[in-house]
Amino acid sequence: MVEVMTSGRRLWLVRHGETEGQSSIRYHGSNDVRLSDVGRDQIRGLLPLLQGVDFVRVIQSPLQRATESATILSGGLSLPQSIFEVDQRLREICFGDAEGMTREEIAAAFPDFWPQYEAGEVDAFPGGEPRAAFAARVASATADLARGDWDGDVLVVAHRGTVKHMIRAALGVDAASPADFAVDLGSLSVLRQAGGSWQLDLLGMRP
C-alpha cells in the first residue's frame, strides 16, 4: 500500500485494464470496448495499493472500460456510490477513422500518416480529435479539480492519454513537450499537492 497522508490533497490516477478489443496493441479511443478477463484481474491487482485510503470522491470517464474498472475498485474498497461522478472530459482521445486499428493497420490504410504525425505536421489521426483539443479538455478537468474545495484523496479512473495529460497539466508540462509519462494498462499514478503546487509521487505502478 502507498503511504497514506493525514492531510493535504492527492489524486490517485488509475488507467483501466486490458480490454476485449486488445487495447495493448489497438488504438481504442472513442470505441466503447469492455474489459477483458485479464483487464479485470489487472484492476483487482491494484486493490492492495488502495486499501486504507479514505477517498472523498471518485471521478471516472464515461466509457465502459473505465466504468467497469471503477466498479471493481468500488466493490473491493467498499466505496459508497454517493461519492462517484462522471466527467465527460476524461474520455480518451478519438482516433477517428483509425479507431480499433493496430499501428501496422493504420500505416497500411493511411501510408502518409505516421511520418507526418511524428514530424508534427498533423495534429490528429484521420478524422479524429486534434491532440491540442484533447489536451485542453483534460487540462480543463484537471484545473477544476485543482481549484475545487476538497481535502484528502480523490480517485480518478480513466485512460492512458487522459492520465498522461492530467499529469502534464498538474505539473505545468506543456502538452507539446517531448517529455513522456509511461502509463501501462491497469496502473496507478499519484499526484500530491504540496505548498500550492503538484508533484508526482508515483508513476505507472503495477502490482
Rg calc: 17 Å
SSE pattern, N- to C-terminal: EHHEHEHHHEHEE
Report the helical percentage: 25-40%
Largest β sheet strand count, sense and barrel closure: 6 strands, mixed
Strand adjacency order, main sheet: 3-2-4-1-5-6
Instruction: Note the gap between the termini.
Output: 10 Å
Please provide a written account of the structure.
The chain is 33% helix and 19% strand. It has helices spanning 37-44, 47-50, 64-77, 103-109, 113-118, 131-147, 160-171, and strands spanning 9-15, 55-60, 84-86, 152-158, 188-194, 197-205. It has a 6-stranded mixed beta sheet with strand order 3-2-4-1-5-6. Residues 1-6 have low confidence and may be disordered.
Question: What's a quick, concise take on this entry?
Answer:
It is built from 7 helices and 6 strands; from the N terminus they run βααβαβαααβαββ. The longest helix is centred in the C-terminal third of the chain and has 17 residues.
